Structures are given as structure tokens and as C-alpha cells.
Amino acid sequence: MKIHATRWTHSLAAGFTLLSCLPGGLSQGLAQSVSRITPKPHTVPAPTPPHPAAKSIHTPIVSVQPQPVLLPPEAEDLGNTKRQELSDTTEHAFFPASFHDWMTQATLTGNWGGRRTWLVDRGVTITGHYFQDSAGNPMGGQSQNVRYAHEIGINVDFDLKKLTSMNIGLFHFIVTSRAGQGLGAKLPALDSPQEIYGSPTVRLSLLSWEMPWNKYVATTVGEINAETDFETWSYYWGMNNYCQFQTNAICGMPQSIAYNSGYSYYPTAHPGAWVKFYPAGNNHYSIQFGAYSVDPTIANTHNGWKLNLHGATGTFLPFQLVWHQGGKDDYSGPLQTNVKVGGYWDTSQVSDVYSKLGMFQIPSQYLVGAPTSTVRGRFGGWLQFDRLLQRDTYAPHRGTSFFASFTWGDPRTAVFPYFVDWGITRKGTFASRPDDTVSLGMKYLWVNAKLTNYVAQLQKEGDTGLYKPTQEHAIELNYGWHPAPWLLIRPGAQYIWSTGGTNRYKNPLILDFETGVSF
Fold it and tell me: What GO molecular function terms would the record report (predicted)?
């Protein structure tokens, strides 16, 4: 216990040291996982789609993941909620006029003495983020550990109409750098309780050309990933609703699809393209088709800038139908509702589900005898629902959102053929904290019954030291404190049932701590 107490003391000290290095330190602070903060429109506007008719339909990418919170200057407050307007006194200087102005400006670095606005007016929008993700388990699991990881990202968006005077769309570029170890391998856990970790790597995360052709059709092509396009999140109050949670089971997509198919996920980038159709000429209905290279090696450290198809095993072919209802924003009009139904076909030839037995700490002598074979083509589907449940009558920038999803995978190859998650977020926890959040979410993961039955048969034959893989469920509760528009500080706790998919270890309690800064 003395060793564990020392580890926790060192971890907390490191966390407070990190916060003290941020301007204003913890005592002054306000910050997501990248909850992304959307800048105040007149300060750092997002790129404008080239076709005026498409403005209400196509949302150009400003940042992928992570994301912090939107403070809407237009939101009418009819009550006595205390709010501070966004301020940026660096319009003609590099440093804010006061500490208060610095803590209320849209981003950490402000407007760069007017240079930022100058660039945006000419079609170049530059944003960035720093995000740290720490977690430890004081009880349960295989052993008690503490882990820290971080990500730094730079996003550059080019509005080609402003740059060239021609309606030729938008160009997006994102580069990220990650470092740090994950806690999941030590628990062990099938879904990482941390949304980011990895060997020190600087990698290309997005290089794409987006083109809204008219109000009926939009396309994207380049080095992209399916996570930002299919079975993905919705935005509420300018925030990624899935990434109000630290667990990677939820943020930034239902995790099982990444295990069960060639679905490409952030921050990797794969050669790909998609096309989206709006039959009614608005965003109430859409149908989308995509094609992405399946490359099992792309996440390797040395492949951070891989731009070719060498090593690809096939093509991931998803489609998605979307129904959307809601006002022009989350602060007025009808409450936002989204329903997404989709599926995929993966052309890769892969080993069947018995090849995944090693994930459950099954001794090697039992893996040799497993009836493993190869399968050409994997398939699956999903259903997602999210809705703004309510908006406070006298403070419309405060409200409650909900989401839930069901993901299904090919029973021949899917290690987790059934996966369910849900989450609820309340924005505006107290009258004096209108932009803070409190979030509660759960995930339910079921292991393929073929693996359960195989191990059960071995146990019946007298083999010992085996634990049947069955399921892994988890719950998370956290509080998102936003002391400034550009800063998120989010402590939370997670509890995992049957960690690692078996009953080998005690259920772990995880204490987590996130900090996000928007540059």
C-alpha cells in the first residue's frame, strides 16, 4: 500500500504541476478531450462553404477530435444566470489587456494582434489543441497503476473560394502528436478507459479536399478516416457529444466497430472518399456512401506519414442514412434530434473470431487447437439516436442532451458482435456555472458466443486455469469545469464489470483527470 500511495502522490503532484504551468493555474482555470471550443464568430470565424445555398447543410471541418465548449454570444439569457461575454483584446496586440480579458477570450492565444482575423478573411483558419488524459485504478484489476498521455494537434483549413475567387471547396490539414501509456493493458480492459495514448508519434491525421457541389451533393476525398464520417457523433452546444467521456469505449465512436472491421479511426489517415446526398435540398435527410483503404499497419509508429496503399488488405465500404430535426442552433427553435442507420462491407480476407482467443489471456496451448479459418468479407451495422431533451426556459444556453447506440458485427469474425452505449450530459450545472457540464454514460459489450462456448467446452473436459470470456460493462460519471472558454478541466470516475471480458480479476474503480486547451 505504501508503494501505491507514493505513486498516487507523485501522480497528483505531476497533475498540479501541469496545471500550474498553464496561465492562471488551477485556481483561475476553466477547459475537453477534446471538447472543441468554437471561437466567437467575429473573432475567428469558421470557413464559409463556397455555395451560399449549401450553408445550412454542409459543416466544414474545423477540428476533428478532441473538442472544448461553445459560449454562444447570441444566446439570450432571460434569467439571472451569471455569464461573461467573450472578449478578445488582442485584436491589435499579442497580449490581452488584463487577466480577466485573457480568461474570457475564445482561445488561449487570442487573435495574434489581428493576424488571425487577417488570415481568416483571406481563407486560412489555424486552430490547435493540447489535451492530457490521466487515469489510475486504486482498486481492482490485475495491478494498481497510474498512467498519463497527451495529444497536441494543429489544424489548418483553407477556404479555396477566398484564396482563389473560385468555388472549388475547402482543403483540410491536421497533424497530431501523441505520447504516453494507456491504463487498459494493465487492468486489463477490452476498451481503454483513456481515449488517447500511444508511443511518441507525429502523424498526419487529415489531408482532404471537401466540395459542396450544390445543395444536393457534397464530397470529400483524400487521407481521411471513417470515424469522422460514419457512426460518429453529433454536436451539442458546439461540443462532440460522445467525447464528453474519457472512456474510449464511447469517445469518439462506439468502440466495437473498430475491433470488428477495417473501420479507420482518428488520428490515423487512410486513402478514401465519400459522397453525401441531400434529397430534399436541406439537412433534414441525407444518405452517404464511402470507401476507405483497410490498412492494419497504419497505426504503427513508423507509418505516421504513410500515404500509399502498400500493406492494404481491402476496402471498407460504409453507407449511412441520417434524419435530422432541429432549429438553427441549440439555443432556439425545435430541439435537435438525430437518427442514424448504417452498415458496412469490408472486402478484406481475415481470420475468423477464434483467432481472437489470445485477447482473453487463454494459455497458448489452447490456442493451437482452436478451429481457426479465414473469411473473405466482413459486414455489420449500427443504429444511433441522440436528442436535446430539454432547454431551460429562462436560460436557453443551458439544457440536457442524450444519446444511445447499438452496433452489430459479423458473427463469423466479430469478437464483440453486440455493443450498446448511452450517455446523458447536462450543460449548466449551477446558475453561476452555465457552461460547466456533468455527464453520465455506460457501455455494454458482449463477447462472441463462439469464444464463450469454446472455453466452456475446455472447462467441461477438465482443463483448469481458464476463464470464460463473456462480457465487459462500464459506467462513467464526470464533471466538466470550464473556467475559461479555451480551457477544460474534467475529473471523473469509472467502474468496470468483468474487466478484460472475464471474471479473473476484481472489478476496478478508475479515477480519471482530463485537461484540454484550445490554442
Answer: porin activity
